[in-house]
Give the backbone structure.
Amino acid sequence: MATAPTVLTGDLALDVINQSQRVIDMDDRIAELEPNAAPLVVLLKKLKRVQAIAPKVEWLEQVLMPRYDQLSAALTGTAVTSLPVANSSFYRVGDVLRETATGEAMEVTGVSAGVLGVNRGIGGVPAATGASGDEIFIVSNVNVEGASLRTIKTTQLNNLSNFCQIVRTPLGMTGTEAATKLYGGPDRDRLRAAAGIEHMRDWEQICFFGAKKEDTLTTGAPKRFAGGAVEYISTNVTAAVGTLTEAAFITFLRSGFRYGSERKILFASPLVVGAIEGFARNNIRVSGSEDHADTYGIQMRSYVSGQGVVDIVMERAWNDSTNYRGYAFLLDMDALEFHTLRDTKLLDNRQANDADKIEDEYLTEACPVVHNEQRHAILKGVTG
């Protein structure tokens, strides 16, 4: 016997009709939570992208002769002509020094392990006692007329390296799902867009926080990890800041701008950006269409200081971290590269031949290269 129909009495209303009859007001656009999720990778790809030819990327760096050292023991008398120093290899006969705590100038007359022979009290400042740890500054060198060539010294090149990491981001759907008409258009297009963002988010975090290692424990299946900026930057690291004051920020910039470009980019958590805005509103401007905003495809704010110009990019995702919410990286983009052994590609139809499904993936094999770590700086431990 056929099922009896449902009988409706009176005017039809939306709450009594068969709900399957209703056309849903569905926006065809799928809202993205983080449409601009990887600003650092975007910048690296626009500035310097280098084709790698091997999974291990190596480079050489030149470091200039050091100018600063310190006393390894106290200089107890004004007539003492032996100067105990921490690094005697820095010096040559004829170097002119200043003991910066007392201002006394000296001439190096001999060099031996840990001790310099010196002619003291040169110039207007007389010989004075000095404490262990006092700073010694190599000002220049002096030579007599007709002198032979002085001792040749140079610094050995530093060899640095990184490993290209393979990052894969798959996506997929069954054949039935792919054939079904859906709001927002075909799901394959949507999933590709979402996977592309996730892939770039992975590379963004590698560029900052990646750990460098080559794992060869499994024969025939080596695994390589690409190191990020945090693996290389060691000289200019300001930790346990607490409340960020303008004075502390200027001190940080002073170390960060010691070497390299006069304009750098600060990738900062929302907490750090908020702190900077709190004390430096008069020094911050939003980049206009003629500035770096169009160049990099993201809106930047610039902080103008006597140390240099800082373009500020907010890393919103760091706000979710207990520790990284207090971080900022000051990066000299002229000293960063992105080396790709296999550049990012969307690889179609990666599913098994007999599978009733469609699977694609993004694949990149690459690594960041951080040149001259002294040109960059890290600020961490900001709490407000």
